[in-house]
Write a structure and sequence with these properties.
Elements (H helix, E strand, L loop, with lengths): L3 E4 L3 E6 L4 E7 L20 E2 L10 E4 L2 E4 L12 E6 L2 E7 L2 H6 L5 E9 L2 E9 L6 E3 L1 E3 L2 E3 L12 E4 L29 E3 L10 E3 L6 E5 L5 E5 L5 E5 L6 E8 L18 E3 L4 E12 L4
Antiparallel strand pairs: 1-2, 2-3, 4-12, 5-6, 7-8, 8-9, 9-10, 10-22, 11-21, 12-20, 13-20, 14-15, 14-17, 16-19, 17-18, 18-22, 19-20
Length: 294
């Protein structure tokens, strides 16, 4: 598999043009923070979610008088992006509309994903541009799978997430078809702290669609951890398959269809409309070797 490597003095990352997907994230000591894609559980590592996040009812959506089909999380993760920038600390990948994309999603678009290393931080910035003459409806999400346990030697059972703000709002779950259940459930987060356990994910992802925080820390207090920042992403998915050694920390703009949703795609909760000839930015960053916040 062809990959492109970028690096700083403290961090290196490799990215595949296939899906513009991060393949590894290593510190200067060679510790890899990214899940390796074990097919016994899940072959993904850090897919890009576009033009939808999650599942559609019956894998299809209504747009005016027409119906279109899209697989869960959209087509970007299965598309080949063109590398347009390659240098030591930066790589940019571009995906544009084509006859296959327009058959499933009838809009012109330009999606660029920029990866950059700066000291111990990897920044990932997506820019979605609408070159057309009508609004561009879309959702977007990041889906990086970080190792659990992190490669610092601390026990797996002691890992936590520490949010930058208290998260008292109820959380959401998915049904058997991957659609958002209507009933919200009490949050397992105690003020700012989520104690991680496989049992949190026996019912699939934990979804925070009324998120207050825009950053969190992941690790075992008293040992180095990872800071994840998502300044302009209003929702967060947390997911793993019980028994696997990863935790997906997924900043989202959008989510799966709510159960019973039958409206036009442009009216779906979480879909944003980008005006003609304008762009919208979606960004996150991962910083390794960070102490837990107070």
């Amino acid at each position: 598999m062809d990959t492109i490597e970028i690096r700083s003095a403290a961090l290196s990352a490799t990215i595949s043009p296939g899906g513009a997907e991060l393949q590894s994230l290593r510190d200067a000591a060679g510790r890899d923070f990214l899940w390796g894609g074990d097919p016994a559980f899940w072959t993904g590592r850090a897919p890009i979610l576009f033009p939808i996040v999650g599942a559609l009812a019956n894998d299809s959506y209504q747009l005016g008088s027409h119906r279109f089909s899209l697989p869960r999380h959209g087509f970007a993760r299965r598309s080949r992006f063109a590398p347009v920038v390659q240098q030591d600390g930066e790589a940019v990948f571009r995906l544009t509309d084509s006859p296959p994309t327009r058959a499933a999603y009838p809009f012109p678009f330009v999606l660029e994903i920029r990866f950059a290393t700066d000291d111990a931080t990897l920044s990932i910035e997506a820019t979605l541009t609408n070159p057309g003459d009508a609004p561009l409806p879309a959702s977007f999400g990041f889906h990086p799978a970080l190792r659990w346990p992190l490669p610092y030697g601390a026990p797996r059972a002691e890992h936590v997430l520490l949010f930058d703000k208290a998260e008292p709002e109820p959380v959401r779950r998915l049904d058997e078809a991957g659609l958002l259940r209507p009933v919200a459930l009490p949050s397992p987060i105690e003020r700012r702290t989520l104690k991680l356990d496989d049992g949190l994910f026996t019912d699939d992802a934990l979804i925070l669609d009324r998120l207050h925080s825009r950053s969190l820390w992941y690790g075992v207090p008293g040992t180095p951890g990872v800071a994840v920042r998502f300044p302009d992403m209003p929702a967060l998915g947390l997911w793993m398959k019980p028994g696997a050694d990863y935790l997906c920390i997924e900043p989202w703009q959008g989510h799966a269809d709510p159960e019973g949703f039958a409206g036009d795609f442009r009216e779906k909760p979480g879909v944003v409309a980008i005006p003609p000839q304008q762009s919208r930015r979606f960004a996150m960053s991962i910083t390794v070797g960070v102490d837990a916040p107070a």
